[in-house]
Amino acid sequence: MLDEKANLNGKVAALLGGGGGIGAAATLGLARMGVDIAVFDKDGAALAETKAAVEALGRRCLAFEGDVLSSDNVRDFYAETGAAFDRLDIVVNVAGGVRQRDFLTGTDEQDAEDIRRNFGYVIQSIRLAVPLIERRTTGGSIINFTTIEAYRGAATFSVYAGAKAANANLRRALAVEFARRNIRVNEITPDTTPSNGNANALLPELTAVMMETPPEVIEKAMAMYIPRGTAATPDDLADTVVFLASDLSRSITGVNINVDGGTSAASGFIDWPGGGYCPAPLGDSIKLLFPGH
């Protein structure tokens, strides 16, 4: 019954950044629902692996190796998608990324790259996708990925956070502008989901400390930070993509869905050891965190 109501079988999805990690989970989640795939990614090895997995599910797959930093790559991807398929129903803009840095040490070139990789390509992707979606009259679903950093003061990720935040108003504005076209525009916001992108974003010294920290300690730290106690998985995000792509959400447009185990709802309330939920450590929490003081 749910498959019938979802009405995804036989549709076509374009996923930018869909070759590995979270993007691959979204790609395969849609393929399992009977969706044919056009996938764009800069990681050729991951792209080939995901293409093989899609085809093993009995779905067609166009794989395009490219970087969203290149407007020509994005344009060529949509040209090939339009030639390979007679329809386009779903667009998922997953690609993004950043390297942690102080704002004042950044260069104009780094800023431009952060803005293009996290916002600029999304504009181009949507503008190229809509004419392909409108080759049929059934409408479509556009799903953009952002990050929790778009909704809080993310020090040392400032330009990245600003670029991601721009997606929020783009999503709202296009949801209204495209409503009469029957094209929905929504957004998914993860937080602590494990991915290569998240690991690569940190300063090298922080990455080194994380690598040396026992997994059980990291799990305890995450349990403090995440109200549900565990991080959302790539498959959790993929399930949300499937929902927003399907007719199960046919009246939902212009919204953001946080897939984060409750961290956005907590807004800084942390389950401190010895102190319980509070924005800052108090009482016994201070003694545990700073022994001897």
From TrEMBL:
It holds the Pfam family adh_short_C2. It comes from the Bacteria. Keywords: Oxidoreductase. Gene3D superfamilies: NAD(P)-binding Rossmann-like Domain (3.40.50.720). GO terms for molecular function: oxidoreductase activity. InterPro entries: NAD(P)-bd_dom_sf (IPR036291), SDR_fam (IPR002347). CDD domains: SDR_c. Belongs to the short-chain dehydrogenases/reductases (SDR) family. PANTHER family: OXIDOREDUCTASE, SHORT-CHAIN DEHYDROGENASE/REDUCTASE FAMILY (AFU_ORTHOLOGUE AFUA_5G02870) (PTHR43639), SHORT-CHAIN DEHYDROGENASE_REDUCTASE FAMILY PROTEIN (PTHR43639:SF1). This is NAD(P)-dependent oxidoreductase. It comes from Sphingomonas pokkalii.
